[in-house]
Fold:
Amino acid sequence: MKDIQALQSKLVLLIGTTGAGKSTILRQLAIRHSTRVLNVGADLGKRLAALPMRDRRLQAKEILRNLAEESASEDLLLLDNLELLFDQTLRLDPLDLLKRYAHAQRVVAVWPGEICQGRLTYAEMGHPEYKDYNLEGLVAFPVELGSGVWTFAESRIPRIGHDIFCNIPFQDVCNWCVADLLT
Structure:
């Protein structure tokens, strides 16, 4: 745990396949910290839909910042359904936005992509929304759910130099790694 905290990162990304339980983990954290999860797709989408197309790109960052400020509490921001941030018409850099929010507060976000060959990705190569990022300085937790047990398994978190493997019963998921990072 001390090795992870040594990264000096306030950004934690939950990564996993659909149905792995990433959103459930966020909801549990929201309950534990008496806050809410910002559904970026729904909340940002609703506000952008009220704008003319030409204004959406210009106002997306400001609207998202306002939504984040409204949603954050106790120095904690929980983000889910980030796919809209990858929309090419908005011209945003989703990971850069998350890192910027993490300068001021702790951020836990569900990453809608995957870790592939030691890189954080979104979409398939060749897709117009494809993004590929270095894992340097990130705390990324692949999440899997099998047999009622949560598995956080991350091989080679940058600068730590060892693997973290831990199986946790569902009822204890927020009492371990991610929750401990936030206390």
